[in-house]
Amino acid sequence: MAAGVATWLPFARAAAVGWLPLAKKTMPKPPVDSSSRSDEILYVNVSGVRFQTWKNTLDRYPDTLLGSSEKEFFYNEDTQEYFFDRDPEMFRHILNFYRTGKLHYPRHECIQAFDEELAFYGIVPEIIGDCCMEEYRDRKKENQERLAEDTEANELTDAPLPPHSTPRERLWRAFENPHTSTMALVFYYVTGFFIAVSVIANVVETVPCRPPKGSVKDLPCGQKYELAFFCMDTACVLIFTFEYLMRLFAAPSRCKFMRSVMSVIDVVAIMPYYIGLVMPENEDVSGAFVTLRVFRVFRIFKFSRHSQGLRILGYTLKSCASELGFLLFSLTMAIIIFATVMFYAEKGTKSSSFTSIPASFWYTIVTMTTLGYGDMVPKTIAGKIFGSICSLSGVLVIALPVPVIVSNFSRIYHQNQRADKMRAQQKVRLARIRMAKKGTVNAFFQYKEDRVDCTALCVKNRSAFEHQHHHLLHCLEKTTNHEFTDEMTYSELCMTESVGFRTSRSTSLSSQQGATGCCPRRARRRAAMRLANSTVSVSRGSIQELDTLHIKPTSIPQQTRSSLNAQAGDLKLNCGEHDFTAAIISTPTPPANTPDESLPPSPAPIPGILRNTRATAYTHDTFKISSL
Amino acid sequence: MGAVVGTLTMQIKQRRPSTDTADDDMEMTMASHRPEGLNQLEAQTNFSKGELQVLYRGFKNECPSGIVNEETFKQIYSQFFPHGDASTYAHYLFNAFDTAHSGSIKFEEFVAALSILLKGSVTEKLQWTFNLYDINRDGYISKDEMTDIVRAIYDMMGKYTYPVLKTDAPKQHVDAFFQKMDKNRDGVVTLDEFILSCQEDENIMRSLELFENVI
């Protein structure tokens, strides 16, 4: 519950006077306020800087260090103050949080130092106010990335080999970081050399050489020295194949390796050779074979293993893909428009080079990018007019929007990120509010069950505020002569009322029996979510028990059955735990165990329902939430 | 050329001016209000100086401008009663607090009402409650007004109640109430009838004393 609301509690309680004449039953007694009500000033000494504040201010957030009894550990009897050996600058912000309810992130502080302080004082960073949340998140992400980079770099270069590594692991490491061993370095340079050789050979073999004796035409060198080039190609491909196979063997996860970009490039680089070997020397397919040779140029991309810069470039292009795509799209639109116009303008003329609209694309692109090859030229007047408009607009369409688009999309990209962040934050905030509400609702159920317990073993945990709040809710119940229940029991009530028979049925986590009509959510299980206030799973017993529920707590047999479900298995009554105000284990229904007879209506008294367990607490996902 | 222009424009990244209009609604249209002096308030109400100090500190912390408007009121109430919809009852309560009918509650009004509710005599408390029920302030509680109030209270219970809330539960409640309160069976309850019948009821008298130790 929001801290500030505590201020209004007296008012809400007083306003409850308005219900009194209407009440059908007597109001319950209010809780006795045992703690001293007079407010006192506390002195907090943080590394010599003295802060003073009201005790009430700190009590607003009872789940933090300063709001709980944990601060007593830091109390100095001699000087009558609380001494913390921490940063006073940061403490200022922490204390402001208590005062105003909003946590701000100081921009000049190191994010890690801030996080550590928050952790020390028991404050979750999620409550940082909206004004500072974005900055906080950005800095945090930046920091994490930087740390990740650093550790990665450290690992890559300096990490010594683990003592018991298989040859396979060593091989992989050699491939990934060539600097670790001399052999790896040698191999690294050899492959680099052969890539270069292969690429140069590809290039050189198309250069026309002097024709051999007896021929007039210039031959490309590839054909003249065919054998030499073939030998060189074979050697390179052998090396590459060997390398690829070795990497495949050494890879820790072969599937992942085969899917990676680099290995795909490797395969594409060596495939044409083998395909060429396999294919017969046939004139028909030689055309296709020639095309395959083009793929040999992909060997140049193998350099990216050797060059960090190339990798970065590739990564940058990948991350800008959407912007580039949109640029391309807008260009395409303009091209299509102008190509169509030019085609129809030049349609009439004979010997027009604008034979079709796709043919006009070429003209449009050449004109708009102000290249102007001159291979296609409009001849009609209309064509020339539109041609000039095309070239003028080319300047506008291509040159001007490119920077605008670039900066626009940089901005939109950030904006989208911000919108997504805000949406995520909004979701988190709503979820937090919902959980807080559920927390208070469930805490109230717990309170009701506790009330009938004579041995108030476990009521110490709750603050005076909570006591009074629950008393208030109890008064409302008495006024209307109805009780608050949770969704589960409500749906059960629906069912039994509609079906007309009363069988006892314990709510179960896994029971799928008869979920009809108004209770579609019975079997849903939620993971335990730790909250500031409480994680309570409410389990109401059977319908039979409901009659007696407001008198008695859940019965013993359920406790034993629930122990089947308790994941931690420690059902000791431990009320000292501060984090959990209540954790009731919801009871399963083993189908064999028909609950009808095994639930005596008068259970032996249990000394308190509060069990400290770490069983999955399951929280309901809907309570009627009044709009905030 | 495009690349050059592009890089130039990219250097000049302008931060968008924040056009946050969300907070405009929250700002109070009136200037912040300061209450009368501590001594005057002490004289006017039944609170001691210390109690007034505590009350004001909390009030000022929550509403730095010194006034509470209806929206805040409803929000506060909805946080106390998360099960159901507390806004209607909060509305009636707001009107009961806002004696000056200014649309917002100042600290004096706040403290005055609390003084009656917490430290007033039985008659004063009953009078205040009558005022709360009498929505149109005409001096009579009609059956419709009562039904509205009771329905608002039942709304706060929410949907999930035991026993299941029937749709005519408010109406039944009102009928029972009128049965008891309306002595001369004229269809409305006057202040005297109200006070008289409340004083006859043991439960109500006892309950009235319960809320005295709130501060």
From TrEMBL, chain A:
It is a multi-pass membrane protein. CDD domains: BTB_POZ_KCND1. The chain crosses the membrane at residues 186-207, 227-245, 257-279, 324-345, 357-373, 385-406. Residues 1-16 form the signal peptide. It is found in: Membrane. One of its GO terms (biological process) is protein homooligomerization. The keyword Transmembrane helix applies. Residues 40-139 form the BTB domain. Residues 143-167 are annotated as: Disordered. GO terms for molecular function: A-type (transient outward) potassium channel activity. SUPFAM superfamilies: POZ domain (SSF54695), Voltage-gated potassium channels (SSF81324). Keywords: Ion channel, Ion transport, Membrane, Potassium, Potassium channel, Potassium transport, Signal, Transmembrane, Transmembrane helix, Transport, Voltage-gated channel. One of its GO terms (cellular component) is neuronal cell body. InterPro entries: BTB/POZ_dom (IPR000210), Ion_trans_dom (IPR005821), K_chnl_volt-dep_Kv (IPR003968), K_chnl_volt-dep_Kv4 (IPR003975), K_chnl_volt-dep_Kv4.1 (IPR004054), K_chnl_volt-dep_Kv4_C (IPR024587), Shal-type_N (IPR021645), SKP1/BTB/POZ_sf (IPR011333). Component of heteromultimeric potassium channels. Identified in potassium channel complexes containing KCND1, KCND2, KCND3, KCNIP1, KCNIP2, KCNIP3, KCNIP4, DPP6 and DPP10. Belongs to the potassium channel family. D (Shal) (TC 1.A.1.2) subfamily. Kv4.1/KCND1 sub-subfamily. This is A-type voltage-gated potassium channel KCND1. It comes from Monopterus albus (Swamp eel). The lineage of its organism: Eukaryota, Metazoa, Chordata, Craniata, Vertebrata.
From TrEMBL, chain B:
Residues 85-120, 121-156, 169-204 form the EF-hand domain. GO terms for biological process: regulation of potassium ion transmembrane transport. It is found in: Cell membrane. InterPro entries: EF-hand-dom_pair, EF_Hand_1_Ca_BS, EF_hand_dom, Recoverin. Keywords: Calcium, Cell membrane, Ion channel, Ion transport, Membrane, Metal-binding, Potassium, Potassium channel, Potassium transport, Repeat, Transport, Voltage-gated channel. Belongs to the recoverin family. This is EF-hand domain-containing protein. The lineage of its organism: Eukaryota, Metazoa, Chordata, Craniata, Vertebrata.
